[in-house]
């Protein structure tokens, strides 16, 4: 008999019988857990279970290991994946250098983590809402955020939709359903859960990115538990890149990474090779299907490596060996892996590579130069958007400052700001 | 005493226990109901928890994206504010969350980000601090930092606050000053049922994130005729509850009732005519009403339950001093809780009660 044919009354009868059985046959009846007795006094240890294995599709040479795991993406999609990963890479190089030259105040690269961004973004739809940490620039690249938009934000010029209020790389785009980044770590996790709750039944999922360091914050615990108990269609995507600034993951947690926490919250969990763009694509696709069908959360832990410094304010040679970084940037590069895959299928070659890199470099430089030339927004924008409508006390402060700037205009960089 | 015996006999009857507590409790104020209704029409006699319940009911009825959540709200809430709402609006819209304040606030911000009306409850204002980061760094700054691309304006946080007779350190706090230092938030404190209903509906519909701190001693202790209609009380507007010429008394929440009684005492004992202002809204606050009164009377006393140092009274005093300097006849006075944690058995000596306020008035007159 199929389950659907069992009547509700029968189900209730079964439930009652089971409960009666539980009371009569000496099973535990504690409300806190549905379980069995044991008379063996034994610790449960991390070794009771083996570590969660890492799902991969390609080997280090970019060969698909089991063809049934090949997502069989079109040539167009694969090429876009590669181009977006390299575009992100080129943009990172130029903006990183520009910070070194003092032209922008701050920057954070995505080196080594390109596949986590692109693979997951490709598996979702534009309608799906993204909450990020700060190292998910590739998701925006995939969604079509223009080079000029990245540059405008980093420069905080008149064309920045964020009106120059936040530090560089704190991107956001209403049009692309990418919620504006904020610096406090992990705050976006319970927010993503709340958004997913409110979007339930609208055929959209929410994806929320965070690093393994951020997962130590209390907000991560809050989010996992709320997502599970309130049945929220949210994908919690952890980029475990081995470091939180200088802190190696062994000082961040003692368990089996982040993935092992998922089952503890009652959450379906996947661990994936974050340097394998197809593997990331597959797990995200599956996570979305499950989240939508069941209205439940999924945790994905993508194992990867932070090849670049934490930020432009960090010199990572102070806390990790050069050889380690070299290994990951050469042997385990997600970009190289995809390139080898494409070359073996005849989708890419050295000529294409050269032409593409030249083109994208030119594009980045052009939008960079244009962004640098634009003035900053009118300084009075400082007072807008604190509230929907400006309250009297803020208006007074703005007017006072206007008078002051008028009197002392040679003391302020007025000419750099729009009128 | 009969009641004592009754209470002992019915230790399990919570209603009796509450009644017993209410009758035996030494309250430091006499509730003064609002005489004027803000709108015409039918009225129902309600205490403050019932008025809040009525506001929540109205909010849910008029906005199908509205949802109410927090710890123990499903069965009606530990203060009965959400009673009957889950039955009426379903488990998807009125639900318990896990016991985690930062989660509640973060979840609320996210729901508001996508346009839902999120009405979150923090069980006691004393426990809002785990959510401080979410409220201060996130909710308050969401619109600003995104250049108005994203906001969480449809978010309201409700939290019971203030002295209750025996709440000690963690069931008595008045944390309004912490939040008043946060641009982007709006903060209100009602003085009774009518105000609570109007302010809560205003908060829910305001396009900015709001915190309503509800003096919990008024939940049952304050009863008045509350309009059945759907109405809002303006955020940012103070109420002059008693007109006077010689002295301005400013307070909010329960303290307003202390000040109303003190004003009467001052009139009887010193022949002094006090103006009593309920500030209502902590952020933004009504500078115009306050300063107009201060300029007229020349003497100002501010009273709040929270500690003195950096309490919201300091902000008021500094502004009054700046705006009304030439009209002041005496330094602005503050009668507040002491710079200690909120104590259990010493509560009668801690609160800025009518006698301390009366003495404050005398000192102001004698200055």
From TrEMBL, chain A:
Domain Dehydrogenase E1 component: 83-378
First-tier enzyme category under EC: oxidoreductase
Reaction(s) this enzyme catalyzes, per UniProt: N(6)-[(R)-lipoyl]-L-lysyl-[protein] + 3-methyl-2-oxobutanoate + H(+) = N(6)-[(R)-S(8)-2-methylpropanoyldihydrolipoyl]-L-lysyl-[protein] + CO2
EC number(s) from the headed UniProt entry: 1.2.4.4
Keyword Transit peptide applies: yes
InterPro entries (alphabetical): Alpha-ketoacid_DH_E1_comp, DH_E1, THDP-binding
Keyword Protease belongs to the record: no
One Pfam family, short name: E1_dh
Signal peptide: none
CDD domains referenced in this protein's UniProt entry, alphabetically: TPP_E1_PDC_ADC_BCADC
Cofactor(s) this protein cannot do without: thiamine diphosphate
Alphabetically ordered keywords of this record: Oxidoreductase, Thiamine pyrophosphate, Transit peptide
Family recorded in the similarity comment: Belongs to the BCKDHA family.
Function: The branched-chain alpha-keto dehydrogenase complex catalyzes the overall conversion of alpha-keto acids to acyl-CoA and CO(2). It contains multiple copies of three enzymatic components: branched-chain alpha-keto acid decarboxylase (E1), lipoamide acyltransferase (E2) and lipoamide dehydrogenase (E3).
The protein's name: 2-oxoisovalerate dehydrogenase subunit alpha
Species, as recorded: Nicrophorus vespilloides
TrEMBL record, chain B:
EC number: 1.2.4.4
Record domain Transketolase-like pyrimidine-binding: where: 46-221
Recorded catalytic activity of this chain's protein: N(6)-[(R)-lipoyl]-L-lysyl-[protein] + 3-methyl-2-oxobutanoate + H(+) = N(6)-[(R)-S(8)-2-methylpropanoyldihydrolipoyl]-L-lysyl-[protein] + CO2
Cofactor(s) needed for function: thiamine diphosphate
InterPro entries reported in the protein's UniProt record: THDP-binding, Transketo_C/PFOR_II, Transketolase-like_Pyr-bd, Transketolase_C
Database matches in Pfam families: Transket_pyr, Transketolase_C
UniProtKB keywords: Oxidoreductase
Major enzyme class: oxidoreductase
Superkingdom per UniProt: Eukaryota
SUPFAM superfamilies: Thiamin diphosphate-binding fold (THDP-binding), TK C-terminal domain-like
Stated name of the protein: 3-methyl-2-oxobutanoate dehydrogenase (2-methylpropanoyl-transferring)
Species per Swiss-Prot/TrEMBL record: Nicrophorus vespilloides
Gene designation: LOC108557424
